[in-house]
Write a sequence for this structure.
C-alpha cells in the first residue's frame, strides 16, 4: 500500500489542489482493508508471470483442498477483465449480497466464499473503462487498482483460515506484485508454472520482481506436468523443461506437480467441480495444500523464536 506521506509527496508536486480529498479517501480505504483482513489468518496470492499456465484452476483446487482439511477458505478473483473463478465453482450468475456492513460473498462447494468481478457482468459483457483512461494507460491502471482496493475494503469475509487471491495473468511484470502489496500481512505467494521452457523463463522474472517488492514466495506448483489418459489413467510427459532446475536456481521448493487431466478440466469447465478426494489428481492438490500449511506453520514458529 502507498504510505500516506509518499502519497502527499506525489500529490504535492501536482499543480492542482486535492479537491477530491484523494489522500483522505485512500487513507480511509486502507484502514478499512486492514479491518477486513484482520480476521483472516493466512492471506496468500497465487500468481504467475505467464498466462495460460492454469493459475485459476490451481487456485480453485487449492482452496477446495484446504477446505477438505477443515479450513475456512475464501477466494478473491482479482482478474478484472477475465474473471472465471465463479464459473469454475458453479457460482456464475450469483451476486454479492449488499448489506450495511458491506458485500457478503456467495458460498460455493465445501463452504468456499468467492468475490469476483464476474458477479457484476452479463455473460458476454467485457469490462469497459470510460473517462480519461481512454487516452491514458496510467489512468487505466489507477482505475483498476482502485477497484481491487474496493474489493478488499468492502467484501465481508468474516473469520477465515485462508484467503487465496487469484492474481491476473502477468501481462505486465509489475501488476501482480503491486496488487499483492495491497494485502496487509501477506503470508506469501504461490507461483504456478508449466514445464515449458518459455513459461519457466517468464516465471523466473516474475519471482525475482516479486521478491524485489518484498513478497515472500513460498514455492512453485508445476501444472500440466504430464497428461493423464482419461481411459487408462496412464501419465505421459507434455513438455521437456526442467522445473526442478528452476526451483534450485531460485532456491524455492517445488510444492508439487499436477498433470493435465481432461476429466478434471471438463468438470470445472461445466461449473461442476470434481470433489472426490480419492481421485488421483485431487490427491495431488491435497498434498500440495498440506505442504503449504507446513511451510506456514514453520514460518510462524520461526517468527515466534525471533
Amino acid at each position: 500500500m502507498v504510505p500516506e506521506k509518499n502519497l502527499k509527496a506525489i500529490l504535492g508536486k501536482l499543480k492542482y489542489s486535492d479537491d477530491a480529498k484523494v489522500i483522505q479517501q485512500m487513507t480511509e480505504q486502507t484502514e478499512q482493508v486492514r479491518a477486513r483482513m484482520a480476521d483472516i489468518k493466512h492471506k496468500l496470492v497465487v500468481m504467475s508471470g505467464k498466462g495460460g499456465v492454469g493459475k485459476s484452476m490451481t487456485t480453485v483446487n487449492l482452496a477446495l483442498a484446504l477446505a477438505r482439511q477443515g479450513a475456512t477458505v475464501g477466494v478473491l478473483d482479482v482478474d478484472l477483465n477475465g474473471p472465471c473463478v465463479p464459473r469454475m465453482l458453479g457460482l456464475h450468475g450469483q451476486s454479492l449480497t449488499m448489506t450495511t456492513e458491506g458485500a457478503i460473498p456467495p458460498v460455493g462447494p465445501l463452504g468456499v466464499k468467492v468475490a469476483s468481478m464476474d458477479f457484476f457482468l452479463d455473460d458476454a459483457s467485457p469490462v469497459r473503462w470510460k473517462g480519461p483512461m481512454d487516452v491514458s494507460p496510467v489512468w487505466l491502471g489507477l482505475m483498476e487498482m482502485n477497484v481491487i482496493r474496493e474489493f478488499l475494503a468492502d467484501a465481508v469475509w468474516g473469520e477465515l483460515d485462508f484467503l487465496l487471491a487469484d492474481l491476473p495473468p502477468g501481462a505486465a511484470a509489475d501488476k501482480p506484485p503491486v496488487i499483492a502489496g495491497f494485502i496487509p500481512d501477506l503470508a506469501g505467494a504461490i507461483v504456478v508454472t508449466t514445464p515449458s521452457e518459455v513459461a519457466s523463463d517468464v516465471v523466473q522474472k516474475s519471482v525475482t520482481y516479486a521478491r524485489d517488492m518484498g513478497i515472500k514466495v513460498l514455492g512453485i506448483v508445476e501444472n500440466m506436468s504430464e497428461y493423464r489418459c482419461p481411459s487408462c489413467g496412464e501419465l505421459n510427459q507434455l513438455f521437456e523443461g526442467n522445473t526442478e532446475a528452476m526451483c534450485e536456481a531460485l532456491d524455492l521448493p517445488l510444492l508439487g506437480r499436477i498433470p493435465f487431466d481432461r476429466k478434471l478440466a471438463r468438470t470445472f469447465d461445466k461449473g461442476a467441480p470434481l470433489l472426490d478426494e480419492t481421485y488421483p489428481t485431487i490427491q495431488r492438490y491435497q498434498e500440495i495444500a498440506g505442504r503449504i500449511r507446513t511451510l506456514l506453520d514453520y514460518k510462524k514458529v520461526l517468527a515466534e523464536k525471533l
